[in-house]
Design goal:
Layout (H helix, E strand, L loop, with lengths): L14 H58 L3 H5 L8 E4 L2 E2 L8 E6 L4 H19 L4 E6 L8 H14 L4 H17 L9 H14 L4 H5 L7 H13 L12 E4 L3 E3 L6 H11 L6
Parallel strand pairs: 3-4
Antiparallel strand pairs: 1-2, 1-4, 3-5, 5-6
């Protein structure tokens, strides 16, 4: 018996469904292409931003390095100006660097790294400044070298520069420099004050805290005062001061001629001795 194969039936084409699938495929491909384009745009933008940030950071770091190098390489004569030859910082009721010729002069010889000098300034420094501000005398602040710890160099350098370029903040800065040294020395902490670079960084911190302008702080050098201190110290040693015994700091002198011996057991007594020697009323 022969079996006749059945003829298959052709399924009719579903053109609408095929078109939908084709359209969906095209849309998926278009979306994938758009997504790739979006990712590339985002990656490009991120890359540009990252490069911009890197460039900005590089510029900032470069500027900081340049400023630091400029401070390190500062020329003493140019940087110190009128103080370059060892002159004192004058303070009177007229302001910083201004002397009233009609008044007597009280000179304080000191070292920014002398603990006795720092202690005296903490105890009666503000009182002595107030006397100058009342017009009782001109106050000369004369840095010299007696102890010569590392802190002395950036502290003296900064003090002279601030006196020149930001005098409004100088007196508070001067007191703050000595107050910091006293706090470190009296607590037995020598890590900063015996290290030049650490002292330099700390001096800049103190300057900022006292309101010294950022422009001035940026140019504060680690040391432009070696020749200054050589000159001021030699002039101090050679000065014909009446009543001078052993040479040491702090030393107070009236009218560049007579030493005022510090005596007493507390700040009030020290202040009374100084004021009496200057011919002023004491409490």
């Amino acid at each position: 018996m022969t079996i006749e194969p059945k003829k298959g039936r052709l399924m009719p084409l579903n053109k609408p469904q095929d078109e939908v699938r084709l359209k969906a495929q095209q849309m998926r491909e278009a979306q994938a292409k758009a997504d790739r384009r979006t990712r590339m745009i985002i990656i490009s933008i991120v890359l540009i931003v990252v490069l911009a940030v890197i460039a900005t950071v590089a510029i900032v770091i470069s500027n900081q390095v340049n400023k630091k190098n400029a401070a390190i390489d500062a020329d003493p004569a140019t940087t110190l100006g009128e103080y370059a030859n060892g002159e004192p910082i004058v303070y009177s009721h007229l302001g910083v660097g201004k002397k009233d010729e009609a008044l007597p002069t009280l000179t304080e010889y000191f070292d920014y790294s002398c603990h006795a000098c720092a202690d005296i300034d903490v105890a009666l420094g503000h009182d002595l400044v107030e006397g100058a501000e009342r017009g009782e005398y001109n106050l000369e602040i004369q840095p010299v070298t007696t102890v010569g710890m590392a802190y002395e160099l950036p502290a003296t350098s900064a003090s002279l520069i601030v006196a020149r370029e930001d005098p409004e903040h100088w007196i508070s800065f001067h007191h703050a420099l000595l107050s910091y040294f006293a706090s470190q020395f009296n607590s037995g902490k020598g890590t900063v004050i015996q290290d030049l670079d650490k002292s330099w960084e700390q001096v800049k911190v103190i300057a900022k805290e006292q309101g010294v302008s950022e422009e001035v702080v940026a140019k504060l050098p680690p040391n432009v005062v070696e020749k200054y201190l050589e000159a001021s110290t030699q002039a101090w040693r050679d000065a014909p001061i009446q009543g001078r015994g052993n040479l040491g700091t702090p030393e107070f002198v009236k009218d560049h001629s007579t030493e005022i011996p510090l005596s007493g057991s507390n700040a009030a007594e020290f202040l009374s001795v100084v004021r009496a020697a200057m011919g002023l009323k004491t409490e």
